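input
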Amino acid sequence: MHPDAYPVSRVSTEFHLRGFDLLTAAQGDLTSGLIVMTLVREQMGASRRKAVGFRELSRKLDMPAETVRRHILSLVQSGQCVVKDGGVAVPPAVLRGRRVATFLRKIYVNAIRLLADLTRVDVASFDPMSRRPVTSGRLSREQTRIAIAATGLLLAGIRAMRGYWDGDVMKGLVFTAISATNVKHATNGTSAAIRAVLPDSERQPVSVLGISRSLRMPYETIRRHAEALLQAGICVRVGRHGLLVPASFIHGIPAGTLLVHRLVMEFLAELRRAGVKV
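output
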């Protein structure tokens, strides 16, 4: 196990949970948000691609081609996407529009918080105070580069979640929210840089209602997925205090922790190639 893997995984989990909410809000639907922001990244990133083929888009999203086609049809009808050159793209008016601008502005703020957290756990060297706050308007060139790289990290993380949970993103999301909340006090505190898995004695259980509120999703939906995690032995119930992902389970999935670490390192490398000092 890489010595930075666990602290990096903890702080990046917070980033992905916040980003999940941004993707859903961007289009009102997670899958549509994933499609549009994947295309935005391709068109605004280093490659500046004009369109992405349907099959390639399906592979990038790790989704069945028919699911992607169905959502693209709806996006085309609403004017959020266009089909051209045998592929699909976001039209210029949408690329410059309010929805995309709002998403990029918010993912930028989320990325700055992640970079500050990575600096706190001695993995990056980033001074967030040197960047002007962003509450409205267009991003600068550097801010846009950070936002596009952060979008790539978010998309890669969700794709990895889909792969680990056999396509069940909701189950993965509920697990991630429970696990992150169990150690949130450490992640946001001075002990964030602890290089080991926190023992059960230092993990704080969370209620289904608490997860429902944090994810802004129906209680019954969260309860159903939490119950499945309990039945599978992935979570345990701690009396009336709530749910806990035990340290033994975290120890048992080193590949997932290392994957998250690799994705974050690739994110930092992309920023450095773009000239951002991290």
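quick obs: Residues 5-273 form one domain.
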